[in-house]
Design a protein that fits this description.
Layout lengths: L7 E5 L4 H12 L3 E6 L2 H11 L3 E5 L5 H15 L4 E4 L15 H28 L3 E6 L12 H21 L4 E8 L5 H4 L26 H12 L10 E4 L15
Parallel strand pairs: 1-2, 1-4, 2-3, 4-5, 5-6, 6-7
Helix pairs in contact: 1-7, 3-4, 4-5
The structure holds nicotinamide-adenine-dinucleotide.
Length: 259
């Protein structure tokens, strides 16, 4: 008996660095997986690799119709939807607020925040039809403080926290739990590739050496927490926020010179 036998899980951004790790792990633990992403090539390849309990659907999280189609596909192909992971997200090209144009601001908010709002809105009735379930919204440790040059991203991830808490209140009586995960710096293309053109990537601003666990996070670190939060083992946890950052937010380890 696996933890997610007879459960159907929809992961947005399901072909990405963290999303594909989540998809693989849910699948390995018995779930039917719906891979939602705008990248159809990677999505089809991942679904093929995993086989019959995996299905790719092209999902643009900024589009409510696209969401309705994805949830319908989950119910048609697998019979129900039990878990939603709002994982799709993008970062802005680094720039101070004064040099951030409104189009960039709106695009980041659309994907990271409106995408999560629409996911909860459209998936909630399906989760109710399944007699309950779980939603996890992937925010960021950047949603717990400020980060210069990342205002749209930081604002979007802060806002996801309020959305999570409100959804937890609205959906708790329907046996739908809603929680947030705040990953620290996780080793995916998200932090390694320049966000736009020749501009710097997040990884260029960050070195893990001074921190309690001096390495980058791996997608599987986040996946393990996600699987716990969406499993029945977490049945009393809702509206909560989980930081998984290797101690990054604790600040640097002070190492005074020894005599
Ligand atoms: N990597 C990190 O250090 C880090 C840290 C904290 C939080 N996060 C968050 O983790 C989540 C996953 O990021 P990742 O590290 O796997 O990055 P990633 O770039 O590998 O994956 C992001 C995925 O989102 C998809 N996507 C983008 N726009 C979309 C849209 N409109 N609709 C549907 N899918 C869309 C992309 O195609 C991609 O597959 C994001 O929400 C990100 O903000 C990442």
């Amino acid at each position: 008996m696996n933890r997610f036998d007879n459960q159907t899980v929809l992961v947005t951004g399901g072909t990405g660095g963290q999303g594909s790790s989540h998809v693989r792990a849910f699948h390995a633990e018995g779930a039917n997986v719906v891979i939602g992403d705008i990248d159809a090539q990677r999505g089809a390849a991942l679904a093929d690799e995993l086989g019959p309990r995996a299905h790719f659907t092209r999902l643009d999280v900024t589009d409510e119709n696209s969401w309705s189609a994805a949830v319908l596909v989950a119910e048609r192909v697998f019979g129900a939807l039990n878990v939603l992971v709002n994982n799709a997200g993008v970062q802005n090209p680094p720039a101070p607020i004064e040099k951030t144009d409104q189009a960039t601001w709106s695009r980041i908010l659309d994907i990271n925040l409106t995408g999560t709002f629409l996911g909860i809105k459209v998936a909630a009735p399906a989760l109710r039809r399944a007699a309950g379930g779980a939603i996890v919204n992937i925010a960021s440790t950047m949603g717990l403080g400020g980060t210069a040059h990342y205002a749209p991203y930081v604002a979007s991830k802060w806002a996801v926290r309020g959305l999570t808490r409100t959804a937890a209140l609205e959906l708790g009586r329907d046996h739908i739990r809603v929680n947030t995960i705040h990953p620290g710096v996780i080793s995916t293309s998200f932090i390694h590739e320049p966000a736009a053109g020749t501009t710097a990537a997040i990884g260029d601003f960050y070195s893990p050496e001074p921190f309690a666990i001096p390495r980058l996070g791996e997608p599987i670190d986040v996946t393990r927490l996600l699987l716990f939060l969406t499993s029945s083992e977490a049945s009393f946890i809702t509206g909560s926020e989980y930081v998984i950052d290797g101690g990054l937010l604790l600040g640097p380890v002070l190492q005074p010179e020894t005599a």
